[in-house]
Amino acid sequence: MENRKELIFRYRIWWHLLFWLFWYLFYYVAYTSDLRSTHQFENNLYLIPARVLGTYTFIYWVLPKFLFTKKYSLFAFFTMVHAILFGIAIWQTMAIVAGVEPAGGGFPVIRPIILNYQIPATATAIVIFKRWYLIQQYSLKLEKETLEAELRFLKAQLHPHFLFNTLNNLYALALKKSDKTPDVVIQLSSLLDHMLYSSKESVIKLEDDLNYLQEYIELEKIRYGERLQIETEVTGDLEGKLIAPLILLPFVENSFKHGASRDTGSPLIEIKIHIQGLQLMFHIRNTYVAGQDGKDIYSEGIGLSNVKRRLELIYPKKHQLEIIKDGKYFQVLLIVELIEEIETGKQRETLFQTNIAQP
Amino acid sequence: MKYRCIVIDDEPLAIEIIKSHLSKFDMFELSASFSNAIEALATLSLQNTDLIFLDIQLPGIKGTDFLKQLISPPKVILTTAHREYALEGYELDVVDYVLKPISFERFTMAINKYLRQIHPPTANNYTNIDNDLNKQYIYLTVNRKVHKIFLNEIIYIESIKDYVTIHAEERKLIVKSTISAFEELLPQPDFMRIHRSFIVPFNKIKGFTSRTIDVGLTELPVGRKFHEPVFSRLKFHI
Questions:
Q1: Chain A to chain B, count of Cβ pairs less than 8 Å apart?
Q2: CA dist B191 to B58, B112, B155, B184, Å?
Q3: Residue extent(s) of CATH 3.30.565.10 domains in chain A
């Protein structure tokens, strides 16, 4: 966009000079019967300062100050004041410099306004067109970016290779007619349901959220087989508590993606969840192998930066996140304030809304 | 001699699929399987391996990077759940790039592609066709049953909509495929497309008129588009 800026937005000074040259020639040609006479040529020269001053004060002061800020009555008032002052300036220039008194009887200011106001008017039309054009371009760009961001978000939620790998495993189980097949189908469909639909809710039951987490872990367990050691522990009272969906899952996904899937030995993942009152403590620890190129693999994870942003939006000042990385383990400690469930779903929503309204 | 294959995949169930698919092919055997590429190195240097089924997203070193480091790699079929590596795969000159979940039909196709690559086309040496086709074969899966067909058994191939019928001596097999995809599995000068819907083995042609060709007991039409190349070759060699 920047490097192929439209022609009308470049060479600004030249456009302005062209504008004034046009009006200069316009008045010269329109008011002279004999083009060889230098009389009008000179007169128009004297009028330039008043015309320039009048035009630029209008488009750079009156327009932005009153019209673009939507103060319409003030705008009307100042337009009138401006027109009168502009008329006086033209009239006085003519009178003093050229010694010409304009015709018009009792109101000598009217004629100069009528004859000269097309200059600020044209300039205004140009400014408004330019502004309209830029706003339109901007909103198009904004719309496109919003759509792209949404799409990226959705894609990050649902890793296609996880889905296909799981389907491949499911195919393996079906091939050998394993008794596990029906369970895995149900787990997968429930997890998909959660990722596709619950993510639209602002909050879900903590109990449900942890169930989905468990389902995800079960599916990953099938993928890695016996090589993977995973321990999960949940303590405390889950009942009647709500949490924003897909807050915990990205951390678990991450531990599989960057820990287990890169580890040729027997990777370890430990998940501890403790609920105390309305406070949820989530601790995940996994072994990890640094990236082959020595790059810090965790700083580039889209999943993690995504969830960090969401935490800041949903739980402003109501969460604590600590990411610790030592030589062998990668650890995440997250403390989130849960929301208490009130009987009806309606109240649940409003409570949540007030919660995010006060940062 | 059977073709010796190894599988490298970090998911045990994915290895099982390949093991199960491969066991249906009489000329192939699975000599080993590994959960990462590094472990496979020793085996690769010790024994003759003909074909590797290689996953891309592996712990330690990526399948494609592993492949780049091998000095004289065996033939490779890449197996992955990632759709985005296809281009890289083809640049590495692999036999095939198979996406998970891997169906048996798709797997058979990959095996046929492998068979095609290890028997390069016979070029212009028509005299040896008989001997050569005696040894070459393809696998066809019909209702999950594998049929091994030697190329010299084939009388002609006919396409009907999305299916291809292989008319062979003593049997007729119908598989789901386009005739163009099937044509790629057959050595080129030996088999000739004579019509939008027909492929015939050159050495099975028994007679011809200006518009038809006889193979076995059947008379097949020659398509207008194929008229020129078909008859100019026939005049020279029959």
A1: 74
A2: 40, 16, 10, 10
A3: 158-357
